[in-house]
From TrEMBL:
Entry superkingdom: Bacteria
Naturally occurring in which organism (per UniProt): Mesorhizobium retamae
UniProt family annotation: Belongs to the universal stress protein A family.
Protein name per its UniProtKB record: Universal stress protein
Listed SUPFAM superfamilies: Adenine nucleotide alpha hydrolases-like (SSF52402)
Amino acid sequence: MSYKTVIVNLAVDVDPIPIVKLASALAVHFGAQLIGFAAADVPPLVVTEKGLVYEGDIMETRRRELEKHLAELRDAFEELVPASIGGRWMQHIHTPTSALITVARAADLLVTGHDRGDDAFRALDIGSLVLGAGRPVLLAANNAEHLVGKTVLVAWKDSREARRAVSDALPFLIRAKEVVVATMAGEAGPDVRSSLAEILLWLKSQGVPARTEVLFGEPGGHQLVEFAHMIGADLIVSGAYGHSRLREWAFGGITRTLMAERGINRLLSN
C-alpha cells in the first residue's frame, strides 16, 4: 500500500516554500503524483462610510489581485517541485476549506500547514477539513521541510476513527523504523490490553515493527505530545473525534490539542 496522489495546500498568506518542500519529499518517497492547490475568495461585502454594501468594482479589483497572487503561488510551486515528480496545479476562487474538501476526492493524502488568522475566505478550517474530506490529513509542523517518520506514535483508542487512522497511515508505518502504539488509560484493564494486543498483531501482519505503551494519568493531548517528543517521534497518527453542533464542530480534547499543536507533524483521519 502506498499513496499514489498527494495534494499539498498552499495557504495564500503563508510562505509556500516549507510545505512544498515537505510535500515534494513525500511524493518522491512514495512515488506519488503531487498536486499543488490554492484557494481563496473575495468577501461579498465591503465596509464603506455608509455601512456594509455590495461594491462590484471593488470586488472585481480584489478578485484580479487574488488571481494574480494565486498565479504567483503556482509559479512558486512549479519552481520548487523536482522535475522527476509528476506534478500539476489546481486553484479556485472559492473558500479554501470547501474547495479543498471537494478536490480531496482526487487524492490519497492531503498535506497542509497552519494558516494565519481565521478568515474563512483565505484560511482553512482544519477541523472541518479533517472531518469532511474523507481522506487522511497531514498537518505539518511549523516551517517543517522534511518528515522522516523514523519513529511514529499512534494514539490508540478502540474506535472507528482510530482504526481508520491506522489504516490510512499504513504507508508511513510500514516505512518507519519504530512504531509505538500508545493508549491513555487510568487503569490497564483486560479490555485495554486485549485491544492493544490485537492492533499489534494486525500491524505485525502488515510488516510494521510496533510496540505498545499505556500512558497513565489524566488523558490529554499535551501528555501525548510530550510522550511523542520523549520517544523521538516526528509524526503522531490519530483519529479525529468530533461532531456537528449546529454550525460548529465540537471536538474531543485530544483532537483539539493535536489540531492546535504546531511543534510536530500529525496525521489525522476520520
